[in-house]
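Data card: per-record layout.
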Amino acid sequence: MSASVGFMIAVFFSCYGLGFWYGKIIILNDGAKISDVVSTFFCVVMGGASIGQAAPILKNIALGRAALAKMFELIDRVPTLVEPVNGVKVERINSVSFRKVEFEYPKSPEVKVIRELDLEILPNKTTAIVGESGSGKSTIVQLVQRFYDPTAGEVLVNGTSLRELDAESYRKQIGYVSQEPVMFSMSIRENLLFAKEDATEEQMVQALKEANAWEFVRKMEKGLDTFLGAGGAQISGGQKQRIAIARAILKNPSMFVFDEATSALDRRNEKEIQESLSLLSQNRTTLVIAHRLSTIQRADVIIVLSHGKIV
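The structure for this 311-residue chain is written out next.
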């Protein structure tokens, strides 16, 4: 450190020495003005120092260019999902039907995930889908939410093709809880308000009670205003899942979609929440993805998938 600082100062004063020596020569021999020599000298010294200080910024410029390349790639991407100009508004989801549906993910077109699937998700009933990993259970959930369109066949909602529906009004009717729920870096209250912007505190507390989450939320120092941290890092996986279930309940949708919604809970909490979910599922169309029999034993229909087909 001492050597590098000493070298840097030596170079700096050497610049002064060179400037004064050469400045004297051009003043005596060429008749240059002292003011011009001094101005030029300081411009060169300060400009050189500034260029040296700018070197670390070049790294940030390179990182910015790399980030922009990804951003422009996203902006220029032509989406495969096209929203209808005047899509059919959805007031309530009653039934969802799959008609000869086939699907493969765009990045792996050679692997058929869903094969000639004929499926009825019955109105006001609980339909459970089980099967080994990779059988296509979660893919069905993504097709139901129209994150993808089937490569063949058709998905019908209330008898109308999913492609013809207004996506915003349709998704407002779905209460979705995933195996790994998304929590935003905000308070519990703000996370719940994503489901219903005008929800009252009483409605939020009731939703938390039905999700068996109010007991631990009320014990927190700030209650509903407790900050969850990035991705909900301040609370456990089971607590995150219960808040996600409460968020789905608060939305009051006409259809519930539970993708392993109780997988991170212990047996006691799972049993209590299953009872709550059973009550909430009454008079609602419900789709449940599960591995454990305890999760689906009250379902009206149980469908077993294998390699994208109903067996």
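Known properties of this structure: The chain has a mean pLDDT of 85. The first strand starts at residue 96 and ends at 103.

See the next section for split statistics.
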